[in-house]
Amino acid sequence: MSKELSYTIEEVSQLLKVSKLTIYDLVKKGELPVFRVGRQMRMDAKDLEMYINNNKSSTSPVPVAEPHRNDVKDSLNLVISGQDMVLDILGQHIEKDSSYKTLRSNTGSLSGLISMYNGDSDIVSLHMFDGDTGEYNVPYIKKILVGYPYILLNLVSRKAGLYVKKGNPLDLTNWTDLKQKDLAIINRERGSGARILLDEHLRIHKIPSKNLKGYDNEETNHLSVASAVSAGIADVGVGIEKAAKIVGIDFVPLITERYDLVILKSPKNEQLINIVKRILSSNPFQAEIKALGDYDISQTGSIIYETY
Known InterPro entries for this protein (predicted)? Predict the structure, then answer.
């Protein structure tokens, strides 16, 4: 098989200088063909080139217009921001139980929350630890979604901690062990929940990030971080338990994090909120999540915080 150049959705959005929402919308309309590698959508370079050529005019170029959020709402497309596989299951249940079509934006928690503030996401998943309060998500939402009414629902709870090599040869058992000399770390991108978790504990324990070898080496998902540890590229990384089991490395649990969903409250979103609440509380959805293992569903569907 010949090697063909392909792009991620994020790379296409950067090339065309439009938002990822625009690209997702074009994909849903069938104007841009994609293929999947696992949970990631990719686009052949030749298909992108064909789309560009088909939208050119002999007199003036036809721009790729940014979709107005009202237009997207009218077409019943939903953008769900986050990376956990539980979101894929949620999207499937939403499509099965309603007329909505779900689009996935694999951005980190903070980036997703900012995209919601800017009107580019409908459901944002969050797992952001605040070191001053020991609370998850609410302190950040209060600061970012200023002026917006919203509801915060629990999706699942899950263990977060350290990815270490088989047998934990460096005997890493807590955050202060990251002070070990010559310890090599692999980090997550800025704005991700795992990056915030690490940075908050470095701050709490007064560990300068500049002292961590590899702190500036970033991956964009839990599996890539776990794989880097497995391959010996790094000694340690921060992430969730599920990825460690998939990759086959050891995991040191340090905290139970609450993984929540935030949705803005508006007349247009009233139906969406009711649908999501119903799905999260349903036996079929919870049974499907429980079967995955490593997820706590004791609070799933509960209202964590709500403004009016």
Answer: DNA-bd_dom_put_sf (IPR009061), HTH_17 (IPR041657), PBP_domain (IPR024370), SinI_DNA-bd (IPR010093)
